[in-house]
Amino acid sequence: MKRVLAALLLFAGPVNAQVSSTAAPVANSSGSVTNQAVQVVPSKTFASVINGVQCQGATLHINPFLSSTTGWSDPYERYYNEPVYDTIDLVGGGFDPEGNPIPDGRPDNPGNILFHKPVRTGQKTNFSINGGITAQISIPLDRSHIRTCRRAAEKQVELMEAALADKRLNYELARLKTCSELMKGGAMFHPRSPYSKICSDVILVNPPGTLPPHTHSIPTSSKTAETSDAAKPTQQGSSSLASP
Known about the structure:
two-stranded antiparallel sheet; disordered C terminus; alpha+beta
């Protein structure tokens, strides 16, 4: 308990500080500083969606910026009048052996203003323009899933191309069938019609195993010609006998 009381008295006792009467010069300065910062906020990377498959990739964000600051003082004073005091010291310290007054180190007319001197304040309006560009690169960390997503997207593209080719084939076959049936029936677009191009590449040919309409000449031999000439008189005689 005694030790606690001694410690309390030690801390609570008066403190004698040395006081110096030496005047220390103090310099005060004033100014203003404007700090401007540009903040880059992370955002979601761009994503590509292909038939329900969404894939993200690395993106680069470039943001140009331009900022300006203006500072002034109010009221604005370009000059101020500084009083110039009379510091002449000619008398006050008595007289020398010759009877001339001796200065005493004090102005003879303290507080007397001789004139006012204009002093430039240096006050001005501060204006600054700051510009620059900020860049941010966003890279997905899970590269394996990104590669899998890209492969799935490529497969989706192949499936869509195959579906498009199938529809194109069906369209061409339907066009061929319709144009051929119309051409068989003798119907066709006028050559100057804008729709004549629809059936311009359709050609009618004979189906396999079918001969087109044609004619042949039958050749005759010399024996066949003589037999036919001998049969002609016989036929004429029989015909004359049969007549009354």
